[in-house]
Design goal:
8 helices; Isoleucyl-tRNA Synthetase, Domain 1; 0% strand; mainly alpha
Length: 189
Amino acid sequence: MTRKGKIILLEEVLNEAIQLAEKTIEEKNPQLRNKKEVAKEVGVGAIIFSDLKQHRKHDIEFDIKKMLQTEGETGPYIQYTYARACSILRKAQEVETYLVTEVNDYEWEVIKSLQQFPSITQRAASEYDPSLIAKYALDLSQVFNSFYGNVQILKDPTHLPYRLAIVHSVVTVLGESLRLLGMKAPSEM
């Protein structure tokens, strides 16, 4: 029920979110093979994430259009980051192992963020607070996107193996974060 006393059914909200997600996909990636399935995953995920990112003691602001943005503190932002990382792995070729002797600041920030995942999930479970996982997934997405935007991951063959290991780790941890939040992780968007 809204503040104005109007009853809104969850099914109506989910259907609207899915329709808005489908419209966005049609605009941004009309060639996507499974648009309807991805739109459902993104639309439903946006609603779930918006609810779970808030600490249970805080008021919730409901703005469906903001929830579906692929930028900012939204579920679609994390799903898009996951899909972006999956895209890098699809484009990569088999590579040999490589001894890492130094990492740049962007790589290091991702590595530090990845190391926090076990303690965040443990804390979220002990405090019954899924917002900790949601906030962690946002933080990891932000540092990964900074890494992605500043490092040419696939262009440097000497650093490619460990950079792909970082990307693979991000895919694993973001996928698990989304799963823990009850959301799907589309590999393409």
